[in-house]
Amino acid sequence: MKKDIDLKQEVYDLYDYYVHNRIDRREFVDSLGAYAVGGLTVPAILDYLLPKYQDNVQISEDDPRLKTEYIMYDSPDGGGEMKAQLSRPVDADGKLPGIVVVHENRGLNPYIADVGRRAAIAGFISIAPDALTPLGGYPGNDDEGRTMQRQRDRGEMLNDFIAAFNYLKNHDECTGKIGVVGFCFGGWISNMMAVEVPDLAAAVPFYGGQPDEEDVARIQAPLLLQYGELDTRVNEGWPDYEAALKEHDKEYTMYMYENANHGFHNDTTPRYKPDAAKLAWDRTIDFFKEKLM
């Protein structure tokens, strides 16, 4: 468990720039030197900021309440044959509504796989694809994962997640009513699936990039949009998105979480904001139960 360190907001902003490829690792580490004061070292700051997946698993892969497995599915307009985690409750009475869980910009890391299992515990059949499958899959660390994901075409990755939707829709254990939830890059994918998939039943983008204004008219799914107040990089696109949603009379609800950074739902880094994360997830599950069940 990480010991809390009091860091300035500028450090979290630098971390955000780094993990979203706006600065490279050398510039990130060099910039942290200005905040290594009072006995605090750059390595200590780095260790604090970087995810600790092994310390924060909420629902394990072998949780007896779930049937969790890895499957392969076809994505002919994307990466070809794709790998995904498929999870659902063992005591389900009949078919279940589905949720596509979309990872950040680094592949299917343990946190997102855990989120997929959390969705299953809540009473859904979930699929959490790994967009890095054509490159060998999530490599075990986020730095390499981000580098790998930059090698893939964003449109093809969108098609991979649309293909996962289609796989789930045709699954024997799924009712065919399916929503999507995604984080960061996955938030953008969630927004774009609302544009591209006419029979998507609900979309929950967490701090996701917004679609182009001309695409908003094509959205059919109701939206639950979750943003962190301190995430100025993503939030700058919200006013135009909201204006377009209103102009086209789309169904949406937006929540802005006070003093929350980008990534506030991710419980493996210090950007995690427990109260906001729990509230946002409870709202997500309630929304899916309303729209999918």
Characterization of this structure:
The chain is α/β, with parallel strands linked by helices. The protein has 2 domains: 9-50, no CATH class; 62-292, Alpha/Beta hydrolase fold, catalytic domain (Rossmann fold, 3-Layer(aba) Sandwich), CATH 3.40.50. 37% of the residues lie in helices and 20% in strands. It has 10 helices and 8 strands. It has an 8-stranded mixed β-sheet with strand order 1-2-4-3-5-6-7-8, with helices on both faces. A hairpin with a 4-residue loop joins strand 1 (66-75) and strand 2 (80-89). Helix 1 (9-19) packs antiparallel against helix 2. The longest helix is centred in the last third of the chain and has 19 residues, at 274-292. It is globular. The chain starts with 8 loop residues before the first helix and ends with a helix. The model has no long low-confidence stretch (mean pLDDT 96).
Question: How would you concisely characterize the structure shown here?
Answer:
The protein contains 10 helices and 8 strands. With 293 residues, it is an alpha/beta fold.
